[in-house]
Amino acid sequence: MTRETRGQPFNILIVAQAGRLEAEALLFAASLRANSPAFEGRLIVAEPERGGLWRSETALSAEGGAELERLGAEIRPFTARLFGEAYPQGNKIEALQLLPEGEPFFFFDSDTLVMGELAGLSAHRPAASMRRTGTWPVEELYWPGYTAIWRSLYDRFGLDFESSLDLSQPDEHWERYLYFNAGWFCGPDPAPFHKRFSEWAVSVRDAPPKELEIQPLTPWLDQIVLPLVIHSLGGGRPGAELSGLDGALTCHYRLFPLLYARESDEVVRVLEEVAAPNRLKKLLKRHPPVHRMVYRGQGAEVRAMFDRAALPRDEADLRKAIREAGFWLR
Description:
single chain, two-stranded antiparallel sheet
């Protein structure tokens, strides 16, 4: 791939802290280094500091931090002042402040594996992951409906609601409305993205429109506000320039038992390959799900339980089957 055929260089942001996220960040960094050698940007690992709205221990281990840096990551601390421990998903919103202003960026959840070369991607137009289900709004007995709920949010921030709709989908069907998984999102400049995402998320959290009175905001707040931010900045559903995310280039696996149950053979191969070096293994074995699933072979036992071509339609059923077999780990 020549420089002329690649997208503009961009930076990557992930969040990591003590425990599960440290193991995930190590796997993300190792898979990025192994499978995207042409990546020219910075990998910034945002580390929430203990203090502010975090009272529990958040610091990466000294060995884990050193290994992340050896893999090419820059560890940047930040203090959570808006969300913190009460809403850890808010870390991704606050951590955007760490990215260089005016430079294209991608945010990825740390529970993501890089499967292929990312250098050809373009972040010139804000977008986010479409690997989502209709998790929000939640249908309630006395709710006003999808249109009323989403329109109230667009009205709150002075946005054009009609232009956000996918008119190929029927009215009051969840896919008609702009809705993303916040597992990855991107844009040409993190500064306005951060400003709107943080201000609007706080606005919705603290004073939701009356149409949201019986709607849960946790854990969905980031995914409620993300479409509004992206739409306001001239973005929308991802196009061909982002082909391969949630596919050949990345896998947002979420939890290791789910990875082994439902992801492709290629995803399992990449996971086990990047986790194999001894210097990484000694760190990852500290995290019980990786230790048991990858190194003790329980992942293979979970995998043997399911036919990837005929998985349960509801993830809850998948989780239940894994749990009943004694393999559920977080």
